[in-house]
Amino acid sequence: MKTSLYFKSKILFLSIVAAQNYPDANATADITLLCESMPFMAGCSVMTACSGKSDAFCKPFSILSDICAADMPRMNDCTNYRVRCNITGTGDKNVPANPIALLGNTNDAQCKSELPLPSLPSSKSLSSQVSSICSEMNMSGCEKCKNTGSTYMDCNLLEVYSFLCKSMPDMKQCGEWKSLCAATPTLSFCPSSSGSEESEGPPAMKMFFHSGFADYVLFESKYKKLVLSFILLTFTEWVPRNALQYWLSNLALFVLAIFYEGLSTYLILLEAKWSKFNKAAACYPYRLSTAAGFPSSSSTTFPHSGIRIALTRFLFKFVLTTLGYALMLVTMTFNIAMYFSVVLGFAFGTLIFGGLSKRTRMESTSDPAEEKISACC
Ligand SMILES: *[C@@H]1O[C@H](CO)[C@@H](O)[C@H](O)[C@H]1NC(C)=O
Ligand SMILES: *[C@@H]1O[C@H](CO)[C@@H](O)[C@H](O)[C@H]1NC(C)=O
Ligand SMILES: *[C@@H]1O[C@H](CO)[C@@H](O)[C@H](O)[C@H]1NC(C)=O
């Protein structure tokens, strides 16, 4: 008797809870009012993206929870949701990876099942990420969100943020986007969702000669990504934003190109020196008696052991190639001034160091001791 009563009351309790579902019409009405007063909220972006879709996260109650659970629980039209689901937070928080943690001690089945999107960033966070990305580089998409100086930029924040992150997923500001998409890959804001793929294209890389300050100096584009990921680590922040930075960048490129020429010349000089000593080493027995020009102690005559030479060569080649290819990539920004900074740097470098290496080569072949040795060998 007792047990059947218990089950009866339990069934009664469950049916009451089921009957208490917050009607879709009420949830939709709440969302409409909320998004009228603050259209930039992440939940409003989800609602827009959900039109005509039937995913679980598109249910009205779920969208209401996107807005009212962590982002803006204090808004007036969130009262019904907040009371029902026992939300105690003060807002401006990202939804945690496990959204159920947001709910207080609620018995409401709907609250527990129609949850907000896991890892959905708060509107405040979205606004600061977009502002941070766009102040670092003026990418296409940035023009949609003007920085007005208020806490929230007034635009479709989640959409712009995802658009920027789709173009440059490796930016440090895109961590929250990655978490969101890892939790719900079918969101239209995520790269793997169908229909969202690349219709809007990567940021404008101008692949023709042009002028203008803002260019991604050694920054990744879709196509150069693999080649550049190594160099990226060093140069991520190198995007000139105004005339002064732009010309300083050009000056730096010019100097780097000259440095490159200097370094290659130095390597040529070293090679000449090594070959001289190698020849001397080959003629060692003969040289002792005839070539008086050389010091006679063997330790000072042959300081360049094979392994040291090989190591030095390796290091030089490494630095030279890194620098050379990096400069090549800079010319591939197709920015006229940057292009000619590099080219002029190489030209001036040859002007300065070219004579030096030639003279050394001539000296080394006209060296009388060298001639004697050449004659011997
Ligand atoms: C839903 O909205 C209707 C009409 O505004 C209202 O009468 C009803 O009480 C609401 N239901 C809940 C559960 O708030
Ligand atoms: C809401 O949750 C808190 C603890 O998180 C609990 O103390 C309180 O009783 C709950 N209120 C309701 C109405 O369930
Ligand atoms: C960013 O680029 C857009 C168009 O490409 C331009 O209208 C806008 O003034 C630029 N903003 C800044 C801050 O440079």
Account of the protein in words:
Keywords: Copper, Copper transport, Ion transport, Membrane, Signal, Transmembrane, Transmembrane helix, Transport. The protein is an all-alpha fold. It folds into 3 domains: 2-113, no CATH class; 123-183, no CATH class; 243-376, no CATH class. It is 60% helix and 0% strand. The chain has 16 helices and no strands. The termini are far apart.
Main attributes of the structure:
single chain, 377 residues, mainly alpha, 3 domains, 60% helix, binds 2-acetamido-2-deoxy-beta-D-glucopyranose, copper transport, copper, signal, Copper transport protein, transport
In short:
With 377 residues, this protein is mostly helical. The protein has helices at 2-19, 24-37, 42-50, 60-71, 79-85, 109-113, 123-136, 157-167, 175-183, 225-235, 243-282, 284-290, 298-301, 306-331, 336-366, 368-376. The chain binds 2-acetamido-2-deoxy-beta-D-glucopyranose (3 copies).
